[in-house]
Design goal:
193 residues; alpha+beta; Endonuclease, Chain A; Arc Repressor Mutant, subunit A; 2 domains; 4-stranded mixed beta sheet; two-stranded antiparallel ribbon; 8 helices; elongated
């Protein structure tokens, strides 16, 4: 991340994104785009993975609301509309929400990622199993039983049961070890590109 990235964006990474996904893969800070009027603009974050393009904005009350006139308000709405038209999904969080309700922000991101990756195949999974699949998919690499336990907020036995069922159903496969498995990954047919 570049030096001048703002306090709100750093807080978002530390309290929302990292706890939700455990990595920064596919997440690009201060991502430059050419806006609808041909000028360069910067997204706070762009998550680009396969065909998914997600713009994440963290807005402070001051610069984004209290100090804008009607024309700037119109430009901001137009900018967001054109992002959507250009194929971007857009999620916006206020600085206060990131500061005071980080877990709620994490859940919004996880729900979005789950919805994006869910093609109906997850219909037979319970909520904990879907949460693990979404977490593993967002991690784009290996996830350990400890990470899964922490993510779900459950004990060793419950996490092991969920992992075993996902392995049996063909969602997860061992990513390391032969006798003692230390990590898992999404099985290839379920891997989002």
């Amino acid at each position: 991340m570049r030096e001048g990235h703002g306090h709100a964006e750093r807080l978002f990474l530390e309290t929302v994104w990292w706890p939700a996904f455990g990595n920064l893969r596919h997440l690009h800070p201060e991502y430059e785009i050419v806006d609808y009027d041909g000028r360069p603009r910067y997204l706070d974050f762009a998550y680009i993975r396969g065909s998914l393009r997600l713009a994440v904005e963290v807005d402070g009350y001051g610069p984004h609301v209290s100090r804008i006139d009607r024309h700037e308000f119109i430009r901001q709405l137009r900018r967001q509309n054109h992002l959507v038209i250009d194929g971007w999904a857009v999620l916006r969080f206020s600085f206060d929400e990131v500061l005071d309700h980080a877990r709620a922000c994490q859940q919004v991101l996880q729900q979005f990622m789950g919805r994006w990756s869910d093609d109906g195949a997850q219909a037979g999974l319970n909520a904990l199993e879907r949460a693990v699949v979404q977490f593993a998919g967002a991690s784009t690499g290996r996830v350990t039983p400890k990470q899964i336990r922490q993510h779900l907020g459950v004990g060793k036995h419950k996490a092991a049961k969920v992992i075993r069922r996902l392995v049996d159903l063909g969602w997860l496969e061992p990513a390391s070890g032969r006798q003692r498995i230390r990590s898992y990954r999404l099985k290839t047919p379920h891997m989002a590109s």
